[in-house]
Amino acid sequence: GVLRYFALGRLRPFVAIGLLLAFVGWVGVRERRATGIRQTRATLLDLRRAVDAYLADHEGGCPEKLEQVLVYMKRQELPRDAWGQEFRFVCPTDVPGLTYELMSDGPDRKPGGLDRIQ
Predict the structure, then answer these.
(1) How many CB atoms are closer than 10 A to CB 89?
(2) Strand, helix or coil at 103?
(3) Ramachandran region of residue 32, left (φ > 0), alpha (ψ -120 to 50) or beta?
(4) Which end of the chain is less packed: N or C, by CB atoms within 10 Å?
(5) What does the alpha-carbon distance between residue 37 and residue 34 come to, in Å, rounded to a whole number?
């Protein structure tokens, strides 16, 4: 009946392959985003350790720029998040209980977006 009318009998293998490729692509995009988030969190952890070491050595005084903590990371340049953006650093911060804020804008690269990584 209907399958013959639209000649889908011959197209069935192509539709199946197309759906399979779409599914594999969708899984790949999700995994790439998850991998970027994990990588960014690991980099943030390294940066936090360096900032904490700087604060300890300078009696709680904030660095003027994030570049000042590179000595504690033994690196020549600041790391970037998984999407190639610089990290946001605010010190001192207005948030009660925090000395500083260190975050990535996340995959959408929008400051303060819902997918930021702290």
Answers:
(1) 19
(2) strand
(3) alpha
(4) N
(5) 5
Q: Which residues contact 13 (CB under 8 A, 6 or more apart)?
A: none
- Size of the chain, expressed as the number of residues it contains: 118
Q: What is the CA radius of gyration of the chain?
A: 23
The owner of tokens 């009998």 is 9
Alpha-carbon dihedral angle through residues 81, 86, 88, 92, given to the nearest 10 degrees: 120
> What's the predicted TM-score (pTM) here?
0.71
What SS3 class is residue 100? Answer: coil
For residue 42 the two structure tokens come to 């690991």
The answer to whether the CB of 37 falls within 8 A of the CB of 82 is yes
| Continuous segment of H or E residues that includes residue 90 | strand 88-90
Cis check: omega of the bond before 92, within 30 degrees of 0: yes
